[in-house]
Amino acid sequence: xxxxxxxxxxxxxxxxxxxxxxxxxxxxxxxxxxxxxxxxxxxxxxxxxxxxxxxxxxxxxxxxxxxxxxxxxxxxxxxxxxxxxxxxxxxxxxxxxxxxxxxxxxxxxxxxxxxxxxxxxxxxxxxxxxxxxxxxxxxxxxxxxxxxxxxxxxxxxxxxxxxxxxxxxxxxxxxxxxxxxxxxxxxxxxxxxxxxxxxxxxxxxxxxxxxxxxxxxxxxxxxxxxxxxxxxxxxxxxxxxxxxxxxxxxxxxxxxxxxxxxxxxxxxxxxxxxxxxxxxxxxxxxxxxxxxxxxxxxxxxxxxxxxxxxxxxxxxxxxxxxxxxxxxxxxxxxxxxxxxxxxxxxxxxxxxxxxxxxxxxxxxxxxxxxxxxxxxxxxxxxxxxxxxxxxxxxxxxxxxxxxxxxxxxxxxxxxxxxxxxxxxxxxxxxxxxxxxxxxxxxxxxxxxxxxxxxxxxxxxxxxxxxxxxxxxxxxxxxxxxxxxxxxxxxxxxxxxxxxxxxxxxxxxxxxxxxxxxxxxxxxxxxxxxxxxxxxxxxxxxxxxxxxxxxxxxxxxxxxxxxxxxxxxxxxxxxxxxxxxxxxxxxxxxxxxxxxxxxxxxxxxxxxxxxxxxxxxxxxxxxxxxxxxxxxxxxxxxxxxxxxxxxxxxxxxxxxxxxxxxxxxxxxxxxxxxxxxxxxxxxxxxxxxxxxxxxxxxxxxxxxxxxxxxxxxxxxxxxxxxxxxxxxxxxxxxxxxxxxxxxxxxxxxxxxxxxxxxxxxxxxxxxxxxxxxxxxxxxxxxxxxxxxxxxxxxxxxxxxxxxxxxxxxxxxxxxxxxxxxxxxxxxxxxxxxxxxxxxxxxxxxxxxxxxxxxxxxxxxxxxxxxxxxxxxxxxxxxxxxxxxxxxxxxxxxxxxxxxxxxxxxxxxxxxxxxxxxxxxxxxxxxxxxxxxxxxxxxxxxxxxxxxxxxxxxxxxxxxxxxxxxxxxxxxxxxxxxxxxxxxxxxxxxxxxxxxxxxxxxxxxxxxxxxxxxxxxxxxxxxxxxxxxxxxxxxxxxxxxxxxxxxxxxxxxxxxxxxxxxxxxxxxxxxxxxxxxxxxxxxxxxxxxxxxxxxxxxxxxxxxxxxxxxxxxxxxxxxxxxxxxxxxxxxxxxxxxxxxxxxxxxxxxxxxxxxxxxxxxxxxxxxxxxxxxxxxxxxxxxxxxxxxxxxxxxxxxxxxxxxxxxxxxxxxxxxxxxxxxxxxxxxxxxxxxxxxxxxxxxxxxxxxxxxxxxxxxxxxxxxxxxxxxxxxxxxxxxxxxxxxxxxxxxxxxxxxxxxxxxxxxxxxxxxxxxxxxxxxxxxxxxxxxxxxxxxxxxxxxxxxxxxxxxxxxxxxxxxxxxxxxxxxxxxxxxxxxxxxxxxxxxxxxxxxxxxxxxxx
Length: 1398
Known about the structure:
This protein has 75 helices and no strands. By secondary structure, it is mainly α. α41 packs antiparallel against α42 and α63 runs antiparallel to α64.
């Protein structure tokens, strides 16, 4: 024991000497001897602490505490230890400090107890978080065990609660922000919902309210208590907002009580006062506490709601008494507010309304003010916002606020009754009915429904509602309204008495009373006006007129009285000027005065003041009076929309006018004039189908109308014809114009429209290729023009149409003889000085002298074409004379003359011949002058510059280029100009620029055919004939039938392709170019070359009659031309035509004519000065044709002679050798046959591999039974049949000959050899029918026959050249009944097909 004490003393000495290792060793030795030694553990813990061995130190102290828990020494060491680790051990520090303080409390050591707590709180504030600080501060609270012992030595509880509340406030704020930031990133999260959810979760479990209550309870300062009462109310209010509806009741009571307390204490906290006033759901405003309202104004004078409240309480409609007691006056002085004027009061309230947009009560008060001022639009707007705010406040508080909602709805519905009536009546009716379902006797709702029913002309029900309202009120206004309904219902007498009775009750000087009195006097006047409709009574100035004047004396701004006075002056007073002033005044005061507006609009329309008509109509539409409410018996008003449509139509605002007329027709679907206006608007905007329907509806109204004036109306028929014309339905349009002219024979505009339609129809027929119809239409147009000129011959459009009609004959020259030249001359000579035709006569040579010789004997088409050209130019010159005073029309007239001159130049080129002299340029120069004059009048017209560029292309390329570029500067999207510019570059051999210009043209309009012809010409220049042909073909496919150049290029390129390539698969491929050439013949009848080309195409499709007729005409024209010119070139063309004609006669089996024409061609082509290449071809064709003709005539010697001559001239042509061999063999003599064999052997020797010679020699060998030759031929044929260049027809002939050889000349296995040959043919050409047909004839199987039918069908036209008979044979070979029937149908002349049916 003594050793233990000694060791403890030594340990204590070591600690004092700072020898902590020795102290640890001594303490451990003591504990080894006595593990329950308290002091040893304390010394050990202290030693470890000094050496910063905190865990060992804590363990030693804890061991000591287990021995003596109430001893302060170990607790002091532990507190000291935790103090050193305050940044990490605040939790343990808290428990140790509390225990130590309690020990000191038990020992009644207040100083040391206080010191421990203060040091702990200080360390918690310094090192800990807000949570640690809040926990440390809680030791000072009255709820702690040490509060009573240390009371007076520690901070006041209020101060501590404030600190803790501030900590909790910061923690909640951070938590809310963190949670919102985390949840808002979730998929589908909405920020508003996330915020509400987070606040509800956190505020619902918040400790702040308890802390605020504690601060309020323990604080001795009123300022602090008020501050935390505000915070408490705000927090409770925020919690109420976040809570769901089922949980709001208790919290709302708490909020209400808190707000009530603050208001009672007259504490100026805005939220409390707003809750007190806003949540007070009163039915009438006068139920509110006036004193409370005035206190609110006093406390918050600059707040928006205070301004609204002050203005309302000082207004005339305020139900609150004005302050009269001295105390009240003093209160007013304190408010520093003097009574405001009405204007200042309204300004103040409007300003306050902007600042208090969240106040329900402010909206309610402002709505009543606006309603009292008849500012119905503002009242409706404010009350709508108030209803929205009421709903929001109801959701916040959980209160129904039904009275406030009903009050807002009443204000809104009452405003909607009057605002733009009757537009909003359905909504107002719905609101009133909703109120009456809860409050059956609500006066405002009854009155409102009565007014709506009155507007809907449902007077009996309106009277009933007014009577119900009068049971609860005796207002003169309601009595007068009920009486007026009776008048509108037809009871003018009783209404008059009741209104006069009401008038006596309307005494007063205020504005509303004056307005009501004015309205009543007006209604009395209207009762008198309608009661006695006699003219004398209405003229009586002591009757209704006097009442209208009295009404205006009561209120000078009562608009209906001005309207009635205007009607009086207009209809009875005979004072139009005063009537117009009255109507203007009425409409200025109220846009709802529809009658005044209508009369004004008509007056303005009569004086062509369309801007004023538009203003009047637009104001009436905006008033809301034009469209009745749904369910109303009242009819809508259509005239404002119609008037607006007319104005917009005049202003060329067609889209707007369509909408206006449609709106008018919705109200008045049988309004004839609106349908006309709508149709005209559609027509002018390019919507022709819709315009057609509109005019057709107008015509149906005409037919069913009782008004005689509508039945005789012609305008709809005229406009419908215009629409048909725009749609290209010219026949219907012309018929329509003729029908109108039957009703209005002297209507010049309709006559001109008929004339223009005939001309346009003729041009349309030219484009479609109906040239005869075009000529007939143009002729008829000229006759119509003559009848028009009898009444009026000074119209530009008349002469332009005449010129266009005559120019049509230059585009259909085959029908130029149909030009009524006598009519035309009389038309040009009628009523005019012939000097007008001398325009440009010095250049083009066409003037009055031309007119005098216009009618001459014409025996050919060329003369008629020339006459039509002259007629066109003279008509366009006359057009220039008629528009001398119209600059724009004069420019167009010069432009038209320029094109007429250019057409004359083009036609002179078409009629010229290659051998003739250079054609005259007089018309081209005149065209240049005309286009220049047009540009002088209108330099900004892109078409004028384009035309000048065209006519100067040959005369001056630089001017032409400048003109095209100028035109493109004005409109760079014009595909025609780009095409013309490309053509200019092509003529000048600038191929790159030409290609670029043509590319731009194609991009601007891919459907413009000439834009594809240009690249075709360019490709032809570059020797790319295939590309050129494709481009010409495409241009022809997309072009109309008016262009001759496209037809020429297409036909020539197609023919070049035909003669350079193997035969086309079908003769139908030649039809399209043939049709093009037939059209070209009708357009340019003098073009001999293309007429010749047409006959060649006709020959290829085996239309020999057409080919012979065409070539006969060509030969005749060339003969006449040669006799006139004796040109070798013409002679060669004549010989070629005769040679081709001989070939056609040969195909027609007219052998005599063929031989004769061939001999003629040989004689003509015998000259030495002719082109040698062409001469040889012509002579070869003539020799061959003559030889064949003589052969078929049976004159073999002449045939052989012709072939020998052909053979000599061609130097052994193998084709001619084969023909000669056939003819020699056919002659029958042994010598001739030997010569034929020798010729064929020589041909094969000189031309090895020539198939025709081998086949012919093989056939002769088979007939001669020459086995050696047959074997040699058979070997050659076997090698020839595998050649890739062998034609299908040759392959078929080779296969047939081999089959014959196999069947006739092979002794062994004859049938097997035949089948082998047929099988070989199938293998070499499986897609050809001849091999399958052979195999089908040798085999009993059905498959080869079926394959023969299949391949033959594919080889038939248009996909192949298989003959009809061959196709029929393949069907007959299947031995099936259905195929046999098809064979008969395909080739009924074949005996084989009929035999297959047996």
